[in-house]
Every structure is written in structure tokens, then in C-alpha cells.
Amino acid sequence: MAHGSGGKATTELISSIFARYFDNPVLAKMEDAAVVPGAARIAMTTDSFVVTPLFFAGGDIGKLAVCGTVNDLAMSGAAPKYLTCGFILEEGVEVGDLERIVFSMAQTAADAGVLIVAGDTKVIEGKGGLYINTAGVGFLPEGDFEVSSSFCGDGDVILLSGTLGDHHAAILSARMGIENTIQSDCAPLHGMVSALLDEKIRVRAMRDVTRGGLATVLHEFAAASRKCLRIREDQIPVTAQVKGFCGILGLDPLYMGNEGKMVAVVAREDADRALECLRSSPYGKDASIIGEVVSGEEGTLLLHTRTGGIRMLTELYGEGLPRIC
Q1: What's the distance, CA 8 to chain centroid?
Q2: What is the CATH number of the domain that holds 261?
Q3: How far apart (Å, rounded) are the C-alpha atoms in residues 291 and 1?
Q4: Residue 42, class by beta-carbon neighbours within 10 Å (0-12 exposed, 13-18 middle, 19+ buried)?
Q5: Is 321 within the bounds of a domain?
Q6: How many domains would you assign to the chain?
Q7: Of 225, 219, 227, 217, nearest to 261 (Cα)?
Q8: Residue 210, domain extent
Q9: The dihedral of CA 316, 164, 209, 298: what is its sign?
Q10: H-helix or E-strand containing 195?
Q11: Does 318 map to a domain?
């Protein structure tokens, strides 16, 4: 508990772990607020991460915190620039585990091209839990660029950046003690978004496919735009391992959470170039065109199944266990 007292133990914790791995000229000043260069328009987001276990195949809570915040900024079309992070540590957290998590955050932040410029640490009574809250700032391009789920229009094409369900399956496997080779897809997506914008792709809407899964995200697009979205089951990529995992536990990849996948709706004329942009990223090699915006009952999402049927998809009902972030 002394590590949260604001005294010598706190100072030692900050200097030996946080300042050591997050070091940059802004943070090094150790002021109460970070003063950073800005832009005409900025995007801001905040998020909290409570996942258990703290470490899982393909990542940990620290990598997840950076990726989740960076990806939320990127989906607005912003270039992520700055992050803050607040740690809530329950008494009993192993300092070695905390250092691993902070090191992972530093590596992921460097990969994403962002600076962690401010932070906070609180220690509370408990049983060794660790939670992270983040805030993020990104710079928007000049001009009137804007994306919105309400911008989807007839004839637009829907693209998915890769396989579904990997993160959800990795977390659930760890929680249940199931041994397999499934790894989390946790990854920063800003590079894919930058490629789309650099190629002047006419992007209508973008979203990272996290809690609630692809079906929930696309249902929100349909409702906001008052359009009918149609996707094809045989075009939606899912790994053989995740398919098998879902078959055993009765899960549907369309409603499983991810932490390194995005969906984009683009003008039909730009669809092939947009697909090339996604596949040019190391995190988008399995990208696919999965559907389109069509005329039909407004606010609906339709799945054309492999067997030739049509299934109406709704948003996720109830709780999509386990908590994935």
C-alpha cells in the first residue's frame, strides 16, 4: 500500500518502472500536466481495461490498453499522437508483472508511433488485481474529412481486415484452461487507416470490431444510416482453430470480440484499391470484401449463408462473456 502513498515508495516505483520505459522529453518533466504541440482539429477518446488474465496468448493488458486506445482514435481518421495512462493496482500485485506490462505498453506505443505523456498510479486494497485507464489524442487531417456510420449509402462496399474471434477465443481459452494454439489478434490499426487515407479512398464509415463483434458493429451502421447491409458468410474469414473452438462451445464468430480487426464501408469504385491497402499491412493480410449496402428494409443487417439462406442479424443481446478488454 505504501506504493500508493505519494511518498518515497511511490517515487521509486515511478522512476524504476514507469519513467524507465515510458521515457520521452514531455513525460520527463514530471509536471502535473503535459504540454504538447497541437493541431487545428483533434480526436479524443478514453477507455478502461479490466481483462483477466493479465497475460494471454498474443498479448497482455498493457498491449491491449495501447492498441484499444490507438484504434479508437484511428477509426475517426485521426493520426494517434498522445496517450495518458492511469494504473489502479490492488495490494499484492507482483512488481515483476507490473514491469512486464509497462514494458509491453512501451513497445506497443513505439510501434503505434504515440507518446505516453502523462500518467497516474493508485494502490488500493484487494487481491492483486490490476486495471488501466487511458486517454488518447489524435490529429485529424486538414479540411472537412469526416467518417460516420450514418454515411453508408446504396452501393457502398463493406470490407473486413481479417479473421474474426481470435482475441475472444484466446481470452476464453486462458480463463477456462483450454490448451490450443489460438492467439489474440491484439494490434494497432492506424497503419491501415493511414494507407486508406493516403490513397484517397472514399471511406464512409470505419470501426474496430471489439465487444459485440462484427454483427453488432454492422447492425449499428445499418441503424445509423437507415440502410440495409448485406454480408456473405462464405467471404468472412475465420481460422480453422477458431471455427473448431466455436463448434465445441457453441459460439458464433459474428458476435465474438476482437482487438486487431476493423471494418470499413467505402465507395464501390474504391473497393479493390481499399482491399489492397488493408492487405498491405502486416495486420491485414487476410482482409476480404464481405458485403455491400443494398436497397431493402432500412436498418437491417442480412447474412447470406453458405447453404443459400438469408439470416437477419441483430446486435448482441446479453453479456458476451468473457470480458475481453
Answers
A1: 36
A2: 3.90.650.10
A3: 53
A4: middle
A5: no
A6: 2
A7: 217
A8: 149-313
A9: negative
A10: helix 190-198
A11: no
> Residue 324: CB partners within 8 Å, gap ≥ 6?
51, 167, 168, 171, 210, 211, 257, 259
In terms of phi and psi (left: phi > 0; alpha: psi -120 to 50; beta: otherwise), the region of 249 is alpha
Same domain, 126 and 239: no
Closest CA relative to residue 233, chosen from 316, 303, 129: 303
DSSP assignment, residue 140?
P
193 and 77 Cβ atoms separated by less than 8 Å = yes
**Cell numbers describing residue 101:** 506490462
Q: Which residues contact 60 (CB under 8 A, 6 or more apart)?
A: 54, 100, 101, 104
Euclidean distance between CA atoms 53 and 176, whole angstroms: 11
* Pair 67, 89 in one domain: yes
Q: Find out whether 93 and 222 touch, Cβ atoms under 8 Å.
A: no
What are residue 119's DSSP bridge partners?
A: 85
Q: Which pTM was predicted?
A: 0.92
User: Which pLDDT tens digits describe the chain residue by residue (325 residues)?
Assistant: 777 766 777 888 889 998 899 999 998 988 878 889 998 899 999 999 999 999 999 999 999 999 999 999 999 999 999 999 999 999 999 999 999 999 999 999 999 999 999 999 999 999 999 999 999 999 998 877 899 999 999 999 999 999 999 999 999 999 999 999 999 999 999 999 999 999 999 999 999 999 899 999 999 999 999 999 999 999 999 999 999 999 999 999 999 999 999 999 999 999 999 999 999 999 999 999 999 999 888 999 999 999 999 999 999 876 666 778 8
Do 42 and 137 form a contact (C-beta atoms < 8 A)?
yes
CA separation for the pair 73, 109 (Å, rounded): 13
Provide the residue count of the chain. 325
